[in-house]
Design brief:
Layout: H1 14-22, E1 26-31, E2 36-38, E3 46-52, E4 55-60, E5 66-72, E6 77-78, H2 80-85, E7 92-95, E8 99-105, H3 106-109, H4 120-146, H5 150-165, E9 169-171, H6 176-182, H7 187-199, E10 203-206, E11 209-212
Antiparallel strand pairs: 1-8, 2-7, 3-6, 3-8, 4-5, 4-7, 9-11, 10-11
Helix pairs in contact: 4-5
Length: about 220
């Protein structure tokens, strides 16, 4: 990933980013598939940016039931709320494939000595915008899990993905188990419903690629 294409660095120059590196504000780390970047209970002072790979934000309750709250793709940030608020993590951040993460040290970035740095105001504004967008993403998941029916949750999720990709054909970032975890559904119930929806001509899918047949009309 070209570092200038990262939304958090929008409007910054390579020289300004290099200045952040020289001030020990960032470092790259590599993680193997299924390894933990952060764990629930950790108190973190770093924001992660995915340079390569993919990250799932997961929550596991006391009965070992797992929910996937969001998927973090290349260029996106995670753990910003915890890094800024100094509160223990309530979720796990797990690599879904071999990943390279750029870690930004918030304590160092917001140290008084950097308040007058040429990159400070632009970086702070970008962080505010991205944090707000993340809140909208979490709201989207609430919409996806609000329906009482399996079909309602699936249709809401796939509709949102279609809007996101601006296409009735798209690829989702989850395998079947991860999709079930994201929608708070049993995997077998999800697979059964997807099969019924395909048989009825509502959707067409192959693994994690979907196509919506938009003539379908039903209440969730």
């Amino acid at each position: 990933m070209i570092i200038l294409n990262i939304p958090l660095f929008k409007g910054l120059t390579l020289e300004q980013i290099e200045d952040m590196k020289n001030k020990h504000c960032m470092t790259e780390k590599k993680y193997k598939k299924n390894s933990f970047i952060f764990r629930a209970g950790d108190i973190v002072h770093e924001i992660g940016i995915v340079l390569e790979g993919s990250i799932n934000i997961e929550m596991i309750d006391m009965w070992d039931n797992k929910s996937i709250l969001s998927n973090i793709d290349v260029g996106q940030i995670f753990a910003e709320s915890y890094a800024l608020c100094n509160e223990p993590m309530m979720v796990d951040a797990v690599a879904t494939k071999d990943s390279t993460i750029l870690m930004l040290n918030m304590r160092q970035i917001f140290a008084p000595i950097n308040n007058s740095a040429s990159w400070y105001n632009t970086f702070t504004y970008n962080l505010l915008v991205l944090s707000t967008r993340k809140n909208l993403t979490l709201s989207t998941r609430i919409f996806c899990t609000s329906s009482k029916s399996v079909r309602g949750r699936v249709l809401t999720y796939l509709s949102n993905q279609s809007i996101k990709h601006n296409n009735i054909e798209f690829q989702i970032p989850f395998n079947r188990q991860q999709m079930a975890d994201y929608l708070n559904l049993d995997r077998s119930a999800l697979s059964k419903e997807l099969g019924k929806m395909q048989d009825e001509g509502i959707i067409t899918f192959n693994k994690n690629r979907f196509k919506l047949n938009i003539n379908y009309d039903s209440e969730f």
